[in-house]
Design brief:
alpha/beta; Rossmann fold; hydrolase; AB_hydrolase_1; single chain
């Protein structure tokens, strides 16, 4: 199988069909994107690691090509975690290496807490679990304000506010002048932009308010690594990751770049991920 052209597969799960893209060979590495994103944002990372892993990037249910059977409902991180477990089982039962970024890190934490038998090691890169903070009230209020902005002013205004909170520019988001010139990246940009409404209406609050089961994660044998971007120091998402690592009693691992380091520093990020997965 070419490392460049993935094998596209679908998996029927309760309530949805999961689009996933398989590259390479070796142990399975499940790649979970965050929030409104899909497999496309992790394609560069997947290609870079396909000489060492069978990389499997997917669209979480309701995003892009992973269609829901019915109308959208509130997203539940434990349901996303069940989907991830079914993917690992469909790929040969695991245990698998797992990488999740942002909200995808939350999904990885749910998978590792609920099905440690399926997880060889998880790298949760800047997971958005605000309830790990000693005082999460400001962070929760900020997320609720984004949601209120969505209800009152619509998706474009809300996504701008959301990206601003996370120190990201609109080139990653809703502004048309930020469309990439590369055709594959442009297609990903279009799909992800079309997911903003679903994310704001049904994903933002339940994903950020998900509380990882720290007790299970500390005691069930799954190896969990919190990855933090060196370019995110001083940002809220960095503080959240430090708080999670502290509660797990582990040392966070530095990764190149900021919240989007897997995209902006793909080569170095892939090496850091490989090292973190294999360090155990």
């Amino acid at each position: 199988m070419s490392h460049h052209e993935p094998e596209v597969r679908t998996l029927k799960v309760p309530g949805a069909t999961i689009h996933h893209e398989v590259r390479g060979s070796g142990p399975v590495l499940l790649l979970i994107p965050g929030g409104p994103q899909d497999a496309g944002v992790l394609a560069g990372l997947a290609r870079r690691l396909a000489d060492r892993y069978t990389t499997v990037a997917y669209d979480p249910r309701g995003n892009s090509r992973s269609a829901l059977d019915g109308d959208p409902v509130e997203q539940r991180v434990d349901v996303h975690g069940d989907d991830a477990a079914r993917l690992v089982e469909a790929l040969g039962g695991g245990p698998a290496y797992v990488f999740g970024t942002s909200g995808g890190g939350q999904i990885g934490l749910a998978l590792a807490a609920g099905r440690p038998d399926l997880v060889r090691a998880l790298v949760a890169h800047e997971p958005a679990c605000v309830l790990m903070l000693d005082d999460p009230s400001d962070a929760v209020a900020a997320d609720r304000h984004v949601y209120d902005t969505y209800l009152n002013e619509g998706a474009d205004a809300a996504i701008r506010e959301f990206l601003g909170l996370n120190g990201l520019d609109a080139g990653e988001g809703a502004q048309g002048d930020g469309v990439p010139s590369d055709p594959e990246e442009a297609a990903t940009f279009e799909r992800v932009s079309a997911n903003f409404e679903y994310f704001l209406a049904h994903g933002l609050l339940p994903i950020s308010l998900y509380r990882p089961d720290v007790e299970a994660l500390s005691g069930n044998g799954a190896r969990v690594v919190v990855g933090l971007g060196t370019g995110s120091e001083g940002a809220l998402i960095h503080d959240i990751g430090l708080a999670l690592a502290g509660r797990l009693g582990t040392e966070p691992v530095p990764f190149p770049g900021d919240h989007l380091g897997y995209d902006t520093h793909t080569e170095e990020f892939a090496e850091a991920l490989h090292g973190a997965l294999r360090a155990g």
